[in-house]
Each structure stands twice: as C-alpha cells, then as structure tokens.
Design a protein that fits this description.
By secondary structure, the protein is mainly α. Helices cover about 50% and strands about 0% of the residues. The relative contact order is 0.05.
Length: about 350
C-alpha cells in the first residue's frame, strides 16, 4: 500500500524541470520598422511630387514584332466616332471592332491592337472614366469590355430593356415592318438580354394584331408557332421586306396607274391589307389634287365683267324707263305716264315695221 508521501515523490519525478533563460535586460531593443522608415532625403525632396502612379490602366502585352507601328489613318478612323458616355456603348464596340478588324499583323494579336487603340476612341466623360481606373488594372481585352459595359450600361438599364422586350406590343397605327424593326432595335440595344431565339419569336408573334398574326399563319401554311425557329425568322424577314406606308403617296410599293392585284387564298389576309393601303393612298392623291384645284380657283382673279348699258324705251336716253322724266308724275306729258305700257308696245311695233319695210 502506497503512502501519501510516496505518491507525491512519484509525481515530482515525472514533472520535467523548468529551464529559465538568463536575459540581459540591459541590451537595447531595436524596432525593425523604425529602421525601415529611415529616410536620408531632405524635407524639400520629400515634399516633391512622386514619380510613381502614372501608369495607364490598360496593360498592353509586350510586342516583339519588327517594323510594327499604328498608322495615323487608322487612328484617325478610330477617332472619327468617339464615345463620350452619352451614346450606346454596344454600338461603339461594334464600330470599334469593325475598324480594328481591318488592320492585321502576322506577329501581333488583334487583341493587343485593340488595347492600344481603344483609348483613342474615348472622349469626355468616357475618357475621364478610363483615366480614373487604377494603374495596371486592365490586363486583357475581355477585362476592358466588361468594365466599359458595366460603367456605361449598368444592370438597371439591362433590367429596363428586358422589361421592354417582355412587354412588347404592336402599336395601333404601327405597320408590321415598323413593329419588327422596333423589336429588333430593343434586342440590339441589349445584346445580353438572355432570351433565346424561340422566346423572341414567341414574344413578337403574340404582340401582333390579329391581321398580322393571320398573315404569318397564312405564310407558314398553318400555325406560325409550329415552324422551326429558323423557319419562323425567315418568314418574318420575308414579310418585313414588303414595305408600305400610309403617309407616303409615292411609295415604291404602290402604283397609282397599275391595277390592284388579286389576293390568293394562301395569302388573303395580307393581300387585303395591301389593297386597303393602295386604296387609301389613291384617295389621298385624289384629295390632294382636288385641294390644289380648289386653291387655284380661289387664287385666280376673275375677269372683269362689262356693265350692261340701259336704254330708255320712252325717250331713248341712257337711263331706265322708270327714271325717265317723261313718265314721272308732274310732267307735261301725262299720256306717257298713264299709258306707258301701251306706248312701249306701240313703239316696239313701229320699230319693227320700220326695219322690215320693203325698199322702193
């Protein structure tokens, strides 16, 4: 049986001894950070502007090609359509890509050429944006496009155009061609809308009025939505090429002298619209012609009318017989006044006989 003293002695033997190092408290302690911050420059030198931080935001990879340089005509072409921050950034990128694609070098990637030329295509607010980007923060062409689009086409704008596409509808006085062009414009202004071609065609078809829907169904030989997306797009493009305008009398589609074509059973609805538009255009031309003729009549000065001279049948003077002094009351010849009608008849008969008297 172990005693308490033996257990204590056993625990002391198992505990490792504590080693205390002998520190020299008089040795000075040096702060390495203070040493690193030491500067031997004078105060005037320290107050001078730094020479770092002036690098461009765009990092162009090293170009080792011989005899490579950007031609001034190419720079001028890029500068001819500068982006100031107010235009559509997608259209600017399309134009820039088209211009830079015309210049190629066998030893230089096209993306490097774009990185070199892109600053020349900016001005105003857009140029200020690029200058404020951190130095060496844009390493590739994709980085530049991403930052450029997000700056001048924020997510709120994307949401707006997506809603415009989803809620698209044909306006009451809008033709088929005008509606299709407006719908394509919305898709073009927001190329990252995310809608598949199927959803685009379905949205446009359901936004049309009943007449244009019937026209597409007739052209498709049944239900338009039963066609493949590529076939449906071809049908819409074919229909949109038939341009007609209700506000133009000299439209190339309408001939005022040519007879109206008859509609076929497979395209009856669409041809009826053409006939109605043709009739309306012809009536407009006729109305304009009538208005011009009426204006000409109003403006034309009428020819002067020669006054009719009156001859008194009583005395032969230049006045009306009612104003003749021989027939008015109070004169010396009451017989003429009282029997003026008989006198007129007698005088007329006498004149007739005198004119028709045979010559001796």
């Amino acid at each position: 049986m172990r005693t308490r003293s033996q257990s204590r002695r056993r625990r002391q033997q198992q505990t490792p001894p504590v080693v205390v190092e002998n520190f020299d408290l008089e040795e000075p302690i040096v702060d390495q950070n203070i040493v690193a911050m030491a500067d031997n420059r004078t105060m005037a030198q320290m107050l001078q502007a730094p020479i770092e931080g002036y690098e461009d935001a765009i990092v162009v990879p090293p170009i080792n090609a011989n005899n490579f340089e950007l031609k001034q005509p190419l720079i001028n072409l890029v500068q001819s359509n500068k982006f100031t921050g107010r235009q559509d950034p997608h259209n600017h990128l399309r134009f820039f890509n088209k211009v830079t694609s015309t210049f190629r070098h066998p030893e230089v990637p096209n993306t490097s050429i774009k990185l070199l030329l892109f600053p020349f295509s900016l001005d105003g607010e857009a140029r200020d944006w690029l200058d404020k980007e951190p130095p060496r923060s844009i390493l590739t062409w994709d980085d530049l496009v991403s930052k450029f689009i997000n700056q001048f086409f924020p997510p709120s704008k994307t949401t707006y155009y997506r809603n415009e596409i989803i809620t698209f509808y044909q306006k009451p006085n809008e033709t088929f061609n005008e509606a299709w062009e407006r719908f394509k414009g919305l898709l073009r202004q927001c190329p990252h809308h995310g809608f598949l071609e199927l959803h685009q065609l379905d949205t446009f078809y359901n936004s049309l009025n009943s007449n244009d829907q019937d026209a597409l169904d007739s052209a498709a030989g049944g239900n338009f939505l039963d066609k493949m997306p590529q076939e449906g797009l071809a049908i819409i493009e074919s229909k949109s090429k038939v341009r007609y305008s209700r506000s133009r009398a000299n439209d190339s589609r309408v001939s005022t002298d040519a007879p109206l074509s008859t509609s076929s059973p497979s395209n009856n609805s669409f041809d009826m619209q053409q006939i109605a538009a043709s009739l309306e255009d012809k009536m407009t031309i006729k109305m304009n012609k009538m208005l011009n003729e009426m204006k000409a009549l109003v403006v034309t000065t009428p020819a002067p009318i020669k006054a009719v001279e009156e001859v008194c049948v009583t005395c032969g003077s230049n006045h009306h017989f009612n104003h003749c002094p021989l027939t008015r009351g109070g004169n010396d010849f009451p017989v003429f006044h009282d029997n003026i009608q008989q006198f007129q008849q007698t005088a007329a008969v006498g004149n007739f006989l005198q004119r028709n008297q045979p010559l001796d």
